[in-house]
Design goal:
Strand order of the largest sheet: 1-3-2
Number of domains: 3
Helix content: 25-40%
Largest sheet: 3 strands, antiparallel
Order of helices and strands: HEHHEEHHEEEHHH
Number of helices: 8
Shape: elongated
Number of strands: 6
Oligomer: single chain
Radius of gyration: 26 Å
Low-confidence stretches: 198-202
Structural class: mainly alpha
Mean pLDDT: 80
Length: 235
Amino acid sequence: MVSDPNPLLTTLRAIVAERYEKDTSPLLLSDLGLMLRQRGLWPRQEHTGKTLRQIIEDAHDPNLLIVRDKNLPAYVAVATEATKTVVEQLMARRVQRTSSVPNLEALPRSVLFAFCVRQEAGKPVFLSKTPPFKYTLAPPDEADRDQFFVIDERYRRPGLKILEPSELSASDRLDLQGRITSWSRDHDVPLEEFYIIKEKKRVNALERLLAAQSREVAPKIVIPGDIALILMQHE
């Protein structure tokens, strides 16, 4: 009996073919990787140093094709020769429905951390639906479950350091934006609900009066309580 020269590719072909027999929606590369990890098939010793995408592309197999969308680099699917055209059409329609690219600087840090925090394999992260937005790794009580969004593993970048979004590399930024966009679209959650609205601070007459004084004079000013109260009530 001749042994299979590449058992991983054989497994990939079987998974992809079976998936498209049941569902013609795009099979995301990240989902395929998750399936392999859940079966203990990835990563493998002999493929150390190569990504799953590189392995598929290097195989030049008509039943394992990488399909990308040029407008959303992080959105990558795997298709067969028979399903490639349908997958490309569905991806194009999906991207057309995508809202604008997420503004990472305008999203609360807690929301960004929810997409980057480390979590056990296969388990989601839970993000509260109301401000202040907080995430938790532990499943909320059943009674509170509808108060939280679920962020599955395929939408997250565990371990990505994001103290300052502006310091992210271009590839990391695009990848994270793509994942957040996919999550918001798939779960029908407008990202605008999370954006931080920086309102102009209102300054009352008392604050303006004190600010107009020199550093030496301001501490010496004594204002009767009733007058201070009136000034505080007027902008």
